[in-house]
Amino acid sequence: MPLAATFALLFLIGYSSQRSGVCMMRAVSEVIDRRRVHRLAGFALAAASAMLVMATAETLGAQPFTLIPGAPADRSAIAGGVLFGLGTLLSGHCAMGTLAALTAGDLPRSAAIAAMFAAALLLGPEMSQAALMLPPRGLVLSPLASNLPAALAIGGVLAVLAATYIYRRLGWRQPRGGWSPLVAMSLVGAASGLLFALDRQWVYTSRIAGLAYGTIPAEPAAFAGPAILILGMTVAALVGGTFEWKLGTAREWSRGAGGGLLMGLGATLVPGGNDAMLFTGVPLLLPNLLTGYAAFTATLFIALIWRRRRAA
After folding, report:
1. Within 13 A of 285's CA, how many CA atoms are on the CB side?
2. Measuring CA to CA, which residue among 216, 226, 222, 210 is closest to residue 124?
3. Rounded distance between C-alpha atoms, residue 155 and residue 112, angstroms
4. Residue 131: its pLDDT value, please?
5. Where are the bilayer-spanning segments (predicted)?
6. For the CA atoms of 116, 120, 122, 125, what is the dihedral angle to 10 degrees?
């Protein structure tokens, strides 16, 4: 695919993510506070769209189901998901939410992203494995690699169910400064699926890890993709009227840094941030990412419910 098309997809993902408010912290809070699962349904729609696109790309020879392996569902994946959830709680945003907030002018979010890089740099997979005396982890291919009809069927059913739920409750309604969740989440998922068929490390947490581990050379090309993603988010915030400079307090900067460190460590153990868990783990049914995502989500639910009851 031409580089221009790749950049266009990254811009589209950034723009759509900002306009739809992609953040698991907000999704879980919505369930607890408002008894609504609209955002969770949007995540399901995005993952299903990615699965359908990747399955289609597999039939055309791109092979995302075989070239993007995972790992076993072990204690490292669980611990990583829990740590990522605790980091999200401390920071106030998940990985995608952190980047979206930063590109909307919330400057303390930069501390979280810098801390994620520092954690990956200092606590890479080999060091973490040695320090925690973890056994070597083997590679696990997607169970859908040899069963594309199942991928198309699962993705199709999940997409229809999620889209039907969203349409019945929201229709084509557009939130303030946003897009209809039906449009935005379908675009985010489809574009991410197509990108994964071309570049398994397009998600920015994977790019951070790759640069820290040295598996991605620190060349201008390595920063071009994240820059386009950031540009898309920033333009969306400006167009939607949600951009506002926020210098933040010392407490917000410290919480961002602390949360980023925990998220960086969690992403190292899974391995993968919550963006990789959603856009890779769910569409490819990779055990470690699914397990990490479940642990991450459960941690958010338990902590936010406890926090709400304590405040009552």
Report:
1. 16
2. 210
3. 33
4. 46
5. 77-104, 111-128, 148-167, 179-198, 221-241, 253-272, 284-306
6. 150
Burial group, residue 134, by CB count within 10 angstroms (0-12, 13-18, 19+):
middle
Look-up: residue for tokens 């811009």?
11
Q: Roughly how many angstroms between the first and final C-alpha of the chain, as a whole number?
A: 54
Give CA–CA dist 309/303, Å, rounded.
Answer: 10
Residue 83 tokens, joined: 């740590």
User: Using CA atoms, how far apart are residues 247 and 277, in angstroms rounded to an integer?
Assistant: 31
**Contacts by 238-246, CB closer than 8 A, 24 or more apart:** 240/18, 240/19, 240/176, 240/177, 240/178, 241/177, 242/18, 242/104, 242/177, 243/104, 243/105, 244/104, 244/105, 245/105, 245/107, 246/105, 246/106, 246/107, 246/108
Instruction: Give the separation between CA 209 and CA 212, rounded to whole angstroms.
Output: 5
One-letter amino acid at 190 equals A
Task: For tokens 């959830």, name the residue.
Answer: 85
Provide the token pair at 70.
Answer: 């995972």
Q: Which two tokens stand for residue 272?
A: 């993968």
Render pLDDT for 156-185 as a digit per residue (tens, 0 to 9).
999 999 999 988 887 776 655 556 778 888
pLDDT band at 130 (very low <50, low <70, confident <90, very high): very low
| Packed helices 181-196 and 3-20: angle between N→C axes, nearest 10 degrees | 150
- How distant, in Å, are the alpha carbons of 44, 103, 104, 211, 252 from that of 116? 26, 17, 19, 12, 16
For residue 162, give both structure tokens: 């999620």
What would the two tokens of residue 14 be?
Answer: 């950034």
Q: Among residues 79, 81, 82, which one has the least CA distance to residue 134?
A: 79
